[in-house]
Amino acid sequence: MLSRSRCVSRAFSRSLSAFQKGHCPLGRRSLPGVSLCQGPGYPDSRKIAINNSSVFSIRFFRTTAVCKDDVITVKTPAFAESVTEGDVRWEKAVGDTVAEDEVVCEIETDKTSVQVPSPANGIIEALLVPDGGKVEGGTPLFTLRKTGAAPPKATPAEAPAAAPPKAEPVAAAVPPPSAASIPTQMPPVPSPSQPPASKPVSAVKPTAAAPVAEPGAGKGLRLEHREKMNRMRQRIAQRLKEAQNTCAMLTTFNEIDMSNIQEMRARHKDAFLKKHNLKLGFMSAFVKASAFALQEQPIVNAVIDDATKEVVYRDYIDISVAVATPRGLVVPVIRNVETMNYADIERTISELGEKARKNELAIEDMDGGTFTISNGGVFGSLFGTPIINPPQSAILGMHAIFDRPVAVGGKVEVRPMMFVALTYDHRLIDGREAVTFLRKIKAAVEDPRVLLLDL
Q: Where are the beta strands (DSSP E) in 52-121?
């Protein structure tokens, strides 16, 4: 023990003398965890006297949370109650540098897509789920090694900015050869005694015809390819088939004269835009008319509870508006329509439509709904029978507006007309209620004063 203490004493003395004389190349790093006491001590330190001459303070280092969390595991966010799993589609790969809140992957569920951002700046070390794999809430997705700074995004942006000046001289250099080739071909044409002049022309024709021949050659081929159905499309197919198997669907039709609503829109659209900063469309008129008709015919707003064999009447009116997206049909909900005016409805439709186009609809935006409106007229549909959106009991189908000859006051006039269709569950709604409901919508759209007079 005595020999060991002497060795330790000599080592500390040599290190101290070397440090004081400046001969230690590593400085303080020659003795990691050991520092000379020249100031206030550290909370976790002890003073050691060696040879009764030098006093050292040995600091005890602790692993901080930053070091422990240097590599973190990102998990799948919790889904809504009605969603149990989803499919992963990766936006980043292993080794990619990501910034905080940058989307790493997208989880496609039955109703919508959930984006998973990076919680911090870092580098992706591993992807724990394959592309297209199924995950549940809380499933580990990927591991991220934290870095102090965000990835440099300015340098790639500057590179394209510097590229156009270099591309301009190249583009400017291309026209002179083409312009020079034209006069070289033209002089040999008048001289029939020169056969070499015809060879370059014949040589140019096959090169120009080659790109045209490639598509032509593929016309006779019978090709096909397969793509996996996304989860949203699978869910849509499942729900529509369930509606056919469960509901006794029946459709009734009517036509609406759009003259008055078009005249009202043309007269007040500028003032409406100036006051509310919104465009006045036709959808708000149909949503408000549907809310009015649902209050008059509450059975259309009701639903059958198959578990208890009861009819559930709703005193509130939440209207789902079908919106077509590249991934499938989504139905965001306008809630408490009975308390809204035209401006409120147009504002809500605009906000939901913007979120749908940006793929930012949350599951909460589509949950619920007591009645659905589907506008196939935006695509030019003349006539169609919509399918009920379960568990609802009815759906209204709008179509395109076309000028048609109609009888008005014993005379034939050309009016802008729209066919409308109401598909309803005949288990709950009888034909009388369905026809009366659709006529209420027709009356409120053709003459909006019916809403003010509560007729």
A: 54-59, 71-75, 85-90, 97-98, 103-108, 113-117
Count the neighbouring beta carbons within 10 Å of the beta carbon of residue 301.
Answer: 25
Which range marks the domain in which residue 358 is found? 242-453
Report which of 267, 251, 235 is spatially closest to residue 399, judged by C-alpha positions.
251
DSSP secondary structure of 179-211: HHHHHHHTTTTT-TT-GGGHHHHHHHHHHHHHH
3-state secondary structure of 116: strand
Phi, psi for residue 414 in degrees, rounded to 5 = -95, 120
List of residues 6+ apart from 252 with CB closer than 8 A: 421, 422, 424, 431, 434, 435, 438
Distance CA 391, CA 300 (A): 12
Residue 156 lies in a domain: no
Taking the chain (455 residues) in runs of 10, the rounded mean pLDDT of each run is: 49 51 45 43 48 49 48 81 77 86 82 80 86 83 79 50 45 44 46 46 46 57 84 80 89 94 91 90 92 93 91 93 77 91 91 82 83 89 89 93 92 94 94 94 90 75
Number of domains in the chain: 2
Distance of CA 364 to the CA centre of its chain: 15
**Kind of pairing between the strands at 411-425 and 249-257:** antiparallel
Other Cβ atoms less than 10 A from the Cβ of 346: the count is 21
Domain closes at, from 146, 169, 194: 146
CA distance 72 to 126: 11
Which positions are annotated as active-site residues?
Answer: 426, 430
> Is 312 among the domain residues?
yes
Asked if residue 84 belongs to a domain, the reply is: yes
